[in-house]
């Protein structure tokens, strides 16, 4: 039998930091902000859609280039048309909201020029969105709760782990729902196929009997 090696507090701290590095790499692969950049023509509208789970914090930052005699309105709505954020004559700023249910939200930029003119230079728009763990400001949390850097990192990794567990639970629930739907559809198709087969057999039997009576009436067969 191998004797257990006693580790010093310094060694335990090194091991913990090593695990934190590994988990941090996983966090970078799982949680990342989405940044998009595009040009918006005069008097045109462009929308971006994304599905978000329930009770998820979403933050974003936008930057719109200025053009004379032109304005851009920003509006964020859910699938029911409820306005989550709205800003007229948007130029540069931030937004934040929390989803009440699993839904798809839509971010729309609408360019407007005087008298509806379609002439004018395109405006460059940069949009960065974050959600879930990546949207939280852990610096403010650390100041409010007086946490040490290691405790802040542990809190962030704990939130990330919870987010991953929730995502897996949601995917499992969706898989069960889809499986039940497939089984129900297969049962209905089977019953419909059996019913169709009985109908065809009945129709064929009726057709044979009808033709037999017809031929007997014409004295073509005995």
From TrEMBL:
<keyword id="KW-0812">Transmembrane</keyword>
<feature type="signal peptide">
    <location>
        <begin position="1"/>
        <end position="31"/>
    </location>
</feature>
<feature type="domain" description="GOLD">
    <location>
        <begin position="45"/>
        <end position="196"/>
    </location>
</feature>
<keyword id="KW-0732">Signal</keyword>
<dbReference type="GO" id="GO:0005789">
    <property type="term" value="C:endoplasmic reticulum membrane"/>
</dbReference>
<dbReference type="Pfam" id="PF01105">
    <property type="entry name" value="EMP24_GP25L"/>
</dbReference>
<feature type="transmembrane region" description="Helical">
    <location>
        <begin position="189"/>
        <end position="211"/>
    </location>
</feature>
<comment type="similarity">
    <text>Belongs to the EMP24/GP25L family.</text>
</comment>
<keyword id="KW-1133">Transmembrane helix</keyword>
<dbReference type="InterPro" id="IPR015720">
    <property type="entry name" value="Emp24-like"/>
</dbReference>
<keyword id="KW-0472">Membrane</keyword>
<protein>
    <submittedName>
        <fullName>Transmembrane p24 trafficking protein 10</fullName>
    </submittedName>
</protein>
<dbReference type="InterPro" id="IPR009038">
    <property type="entry name" value="GOLD_dom"/>
</dbReference>
């Amino acid at each position: 039998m191998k004797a257990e090696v006693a580790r010093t507090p310094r060694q335990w701290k090194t091991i913990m930091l090593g695990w934190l590095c590994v988990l941090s790499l996983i966090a970078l692969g799982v949680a990342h902000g989405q940044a998009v950049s595009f040009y918006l023509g005069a008097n045109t509208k462009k929308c971006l859609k994304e599905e978000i789970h329930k009770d998820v914090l979403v933050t974003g930052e936008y930057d719109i280039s200025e053009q004379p005699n032109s304005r851009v309105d920003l509006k964020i709505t859910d699938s029911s048309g409820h306005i989550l954020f709205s800003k007229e004559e948007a130029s540069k700023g931030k937004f934040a909201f929390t989803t009440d249910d699993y839904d798809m939200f839509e971010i729309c930029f609408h360019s407007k020029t005087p008298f509806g003119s379609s002439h004018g230079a395109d405006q460059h728009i940069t949009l960065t969105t974050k959600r879930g763990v990546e949207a939280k400001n852990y610096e403010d949390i650390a100041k409010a709760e007086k946490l040490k850097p290691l405790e802040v990192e542990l809190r962030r990794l704990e939130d990330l782990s919870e987010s991953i567990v929730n995502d897996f639970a949601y995917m499992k629930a969706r898989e069960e729902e889809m499986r039940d739907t497939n089984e129900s559809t297969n049962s209905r198709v089977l019953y419909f196929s059996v019913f169709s087969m009985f109908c065809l057999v009945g129709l064929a039997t009726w057709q044979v009997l009808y033709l037999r009576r017809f031929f007997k009436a014409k004295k073509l067969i005995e």
